[in-house]
Amino acid sequence: MPPPDTALSVRSLSDGGLDETLIDQSTRLLGDLITRGAALGWLTPPPRAEVAALLSRIATADEGDAALLVARHEGHLAGFGYWERYARPTIARHADLTLLAVGDTWQGAGVGRRLCGELVATARRAGVEKLTVDFRDDNVRAQSLYESVGFRRYGVLGDFIVAGGRRFDKMMYVLDLR
Ligand SMILES: CC(C)(COP(=O)(O)OP(=O)(O)OC[C@H]1O[C@@H](n2cnc3c(N)ncnc32)[C@H](O)[C@@H]1OP(=O)(O)O)[C@@H](O)C(=O)NCCC(=O)NCCS
Predict the structure, then answer these.
(1) Are 54 and 22 in contact (CB under 8 A)?
(2) Which residues line ligand 1 (CB under 6 A)?
(3) Protein residue whose Cα sits closest to atom 20 of ligand 1
(4) From first to last of its 178 residues, what are the pLDDT tens digits of the chain?
(5) CA-based, 20 to 30 A from 134: which of 48, 95, 155, 158?
(6) How are beta strands 95-102 and 130-136 bridged, if at all?
(7) Ligand 1: distance of its center to the CA of 14 in Å?
(8) How many CA atoms lie less than 13 Å away from 95 in the CB half-sphere?
């Protein structure tokens, strides 16, 4: 059942908000998506320890260097996403929206749009100049979402991604926040 917009809470997580339940829920959400073939960069579900390390790195980053946003509906994790600044000093004005994932049962109900909009808003507030994102060329949902938010294509790496015995192009998009 799609969550009514008002019942969905989206909040930014710092270190204090990252508890064991959220790590369990995130591991399950990612695992279910990847098992069904979602284009998230993993071929098999990441182990809990990997998800814990990833989320903890983002949640403990200095303010303005990264943001982890989670969408919840009645205690359930509907989706989450994060952006992170590039590490090299010469490109640290910019950041990458590295992960955006909405659980299967919540897809198509506006959760991804809410998360994406708020990720962009937090990046803008943090002074990020260019926010990049990339996705697999068959991911029409992601493409249509990012284009509707204002991301524009700046490159394509042909046959870059190998999954399920097939090759896919990597689509590279950017949103200029200046
Ligand atoms: C891509 C993803 C984040 C979108 O989140 P979502 O909650 O399903 O999307 P929303 O309901 O917020 O819809 C946002 C937009 O996506 C597009 N969209 C949604 N469902 C779609 C569909 N079935 N076909 C094509 N476009 C679709 C539309 O542009 C939609 O905008 P609209 O509501 O104004 O029409 C989500 O489907 C997901 O997690 N997929 C698996 C993981 C993934 O691919 N992540 C992105 C990797 S970069």
Answers:
(1) no
(2) 33, 38-40, 100-102, 107-113, 135, 139-142, 144-145, 148
(3) 108
(4) 555 565 778 888 776 788 999 999 999 999 999 999 999 999 999 999 999 999 999 999 999 999 999 999 988 999 999 999 999 999 999 999 999 999 999 999 999 999 999 999 999 999 999 999 999 999 999 999 999 999 999 999 999 999 999 999 999 999 999 9
(5) 48
(6) parallel
(7) 26
(8) 26
Measured CA to CA, the distance from residue 94 to residue 118 in angstroms comes to: 17
Q: Ligand 1 centroid to 92 CA: how many Å? A: 28
CA distance readout (Å), 138 to 40, 81, 145, 171: 12, 20, 13, 10
* CB-side neighbour CA atoms (13 Å) of 88: 2
Locate the ligand 1 atom nearest the alpha carbon of residue 135 and give its number.
Answer: 48
Closest Cα to atom 21 of ligand 1 = 141
Distance of CA 17 from the midpoint of ligand 1 (Å): 26
DSSP character at residue 63:
B
